[in-house]
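Schema walkthrough. Field components (list of strings):
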Amino acid sequence: MRWIWIDKFTEFTPRTSASAVKNVTLAEEHLHDLYPAFPIVPHSLIVEGMAQTAGILVGEARNFEEKVILAKVGRATFHRLVRPGDTIVFQATIDQLSEAGASVSGVVKAGDELVAEIDLMFSHIDQNMAGLEFPEHNFVFTEQFTELLKTYRTGASVAL
Amino acid sequence: MSRDEIYKKVQGVLVDALGVDEDEVTPTATLRGDLGAESIDFLDIVFRLEKAFGIKIPRGELFPEQMDPAFVQDGKLNDAGLAEVRRRMPETNLAELERTRDVNLIANLFSVQDIVSYLEKKMTAAA
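Field assembly_structure (string):
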């Protein structure tokens, strides 16, 4: 199973900001499960989409060498529901980036409409949690993930 | 910036970072015991203080979470380590720590006024 809640990046400025798009379709299984006959994207998955957009931005800043873990949702304010047919854009901006982690402010939009404001904090877990041991391999940014990311590059050609 | 102004700002940061009420954030409230801070909150607090005060807080400088290995032997603070803790937590009653030297106690003793003292020194040094 893939746990990826963004479709592509439309902007990526290393160590600064990134925007990613998610097209919501009624073909997604989960939309039928939360409220049957009233399909909406659960807020938790909107937070997850922002965490993925921001997490990749934070990971890239250290060449995907750190295990970047979502440590805290500082704020998540929702203004509008997201329904099938919507295209939502996750805009993440790094506020602070250090050896230990990063804080990111995020805005989610559908067209010009504000969907949510989500502020997140990420931890580079090997640099924190002193005394705890984590597996050596990077289970956050796996080889499969980094391969996928190559085809994800902004502006990658789609010509046959 | 006066100590009182620093304290007020720290209070705001802790209210936001820990979701506690302003009146819970007293000078002697300990971060872990009284305010319920968990290890990940310390990184959040550092980020928020940096933003609020426009400063950089090098890792390990504020919170004694990660004591320099030179200060610790077998989980106990050595004399230099104890002196370092006294320097960082001048307001705190360290009697129990002095008796047990247990390095794990430090995080439990760290209080709001220790953050204020740290920032006061930092701001004076920067001025």
